[in-house]
Every structure is written in structure tokens, then in C-alpha cells.
Amino acid sequence: MMAEFGENIRKAREKLGITQQTLADRLYVTRQAVSRWENGSRYPDLLTAKRLSQELDSTLDDLLSNDDMHTYPEVNPLIEYPLHKRVQTALFASSVVTNLIVVIWYLGFILTGREREFISHWDNVAQFAGMLYTALITAILIIGLVQSIKDKITPPVAARLAVIYCNYRNQTAETAYINIIITGAYLLVYGAMILSVLRFFCGKKPHSPIPVYICSGILIVFDLWTFLFTVTVMRGSPMVTKHEMISILRIFADLLLPALFIYMTAILDRKRKLAKNCSEPET
After folding, report:
1. Which of 72, 99, 192, 237 stands 20 to 30 A from 274 (CA)?
2. What's the distance, Cα to Cα, between the start and end of the chain in Å?
3. Which pTM does this prediction carry?
């Protein structure tokens, strides 16, 4: 279907006797963007598609079939508008920087051996495991940041990033919490998060974003509760001053990702609804 759409653009452009560069200048896009449309590797966003049809003296119905309209949100970048893209990239960048600071703190704590008199052997193991899992999550986020900068985060890519992130956070929960009830609750929520993300981003038909919102909201509440519980328990401890700052950084890093999932889910849901409205025949 995308090849047919691209061929329709090419024929309409050649009929008017204009080049790809001329068309690109009129639409305020790059020539490479027009080339990608014509070779079938990318769709324009809907607003650009409307301007495109006007410049080609055609209609959207001539260029895009109903199948095209349903397909474009799934194969195009998840977020297309410049401001939305900057917000997405900023969320990834903030999370990368925050997690890197946490990794460096863990490494310094382990290497310097400060305050060892206040911690047990199990705490040392937990600190090392925390550093390892945070480093892995940071690597995932760096990949996401690069993909966001390159404008390559499509719905399947977003789903893979979310699943990998939730999987490693699952492992962190297993290591960090001895209480079987707390650990079980985390594993249940992360499992539900993975299923809801896969269903919404990769389902064969559009699904409601509400399960993703609910799971992300629960994760945010869990992370806030864990932070408040930890600070309360440590109050009065000799370690509290040094750990309060890193705890704040960790909770900030943990909250950014559910917020990012909510943001990307809302954008994709809006695109799907817009595509559906545009593909429905007028009565």
C-alpha cells in the first residue's frame, strides 16, 4: 500500500512538472522527506498530507486509501511534530543523565568503601546489583535517546524499549526487596505493564490506552511510596544525609520513564483517532 501511495505522489508531481526539491520547498520539508514518501518508506503526517494534496492539485482520497490511513500511525515515527519530538528527546536525555549520576554514585560508594561500618554484606551485594541494573537501564535509555534524535521511534520500537526497561526493573525489584509481598506486587505491575504496552503498541487492531495509563500510574505511586518509606526508615541514621540526595535522583529517574510511556501512548492514541476520523466517509 505504501508503494502505491508513493507512486501516486510521483505521478501527480511529474504531471505538474515540478521536482522533488520544489515540492519540498513548498511544504517546508527536506527533499529526502519527499523521496522517502515516493519510495514508500515513510508517510507524511496528516497535516502535511493535506498540504501535499493541495500542492499537487489533488485530493487525499486520490493519494491515500483507507488502508493507508489506518497504516500510517503504525509505520511512521511515533512522534512527528517538532515540539513533541523535543519533549520526547528531553525526557530521554533527562533520564539518561539522572541514571548516569546514580551509576557514578554507586561506583564511587563501592570503590571508596566509605561508611562500610554502617552496612552489612547483603547491603554491599545490593549496592553492586543496583549499580549493574541501573547501568543496564542507562544503556537502554541511551539507545532510546539516539533513536529519538534520529526520529526512528516507531510504535514497535517504543514497545521494545518499554518491555526491556520493565524487564530490568523487574529484576531490580527481585534484588532490592526482601519482603515477598512488595516484590510480588512490583512483579505483578511490571508484568501487567509489559502486556498492556505490547497490546497497545503492537496489537493487530487499535486498543484503549487506559491499561497503559493505569499501570504507569501505579508504578509512579509505587516509586513515590518506596522513596517516602526509605527516607522515613533511615531518618536519624548516619547515612541519611548522603542517601537522601541519591534517593531523590533515583526516584526522579524512576518517575521519568512511566511519564514517557504515558506521553508516547497519548500521542499514538491521538494519531490513531485522527487517522480513523480522516478515513471515515463523510455523511
Report:
1. 192
2. 26
3. 0.72
Tell me, rounded to whole angstroms, the distance of Cα 107 from its chain centroid.
Answer: 27
User: Cα separation of 2 and 43, whole Å?
Assistant: 8
Cα separations in angstroms, 280 against 6, 44, 70, 95, 276: 22, 19, 10, 40, 6
pLDDT band at residue 234, thresholds of 50, 70 and 90? Answer: low
Answer yes or no: are the C-beta atoms of 5 and 64 closer than 8 Å.
Answer: yes
Q: What is the mean pLDDT of residues 169-193?
A: 70
∠ CA 240-217-200, rounded to 5°: 140
**Three-state DSSP state, 154:** coil
- Sign of the C-alpha dihedral, residues 145, 48, 33, 2? positive
**CA angle at 237 for the pair 134 and 171, rounded to the nearest 5°:** 25
Q: Are 49 and 27 in contact (CB under 8 A)?
A: no
CA atoms of 62 and 8, how far apart (whole Å): 8
Distant-in-sequence, close-in-space partners of 249: CB < 8 Å, separation ≥ 6: 98, 101, 102, 105
Model pLDDT for residues 6-47, shown as the tens digit of each residue: 888 888 899 899 999 999 888 888 888 888 888 877 778 777
Query: Which residue do the cell numbers 463523510 mark?
Result: 282
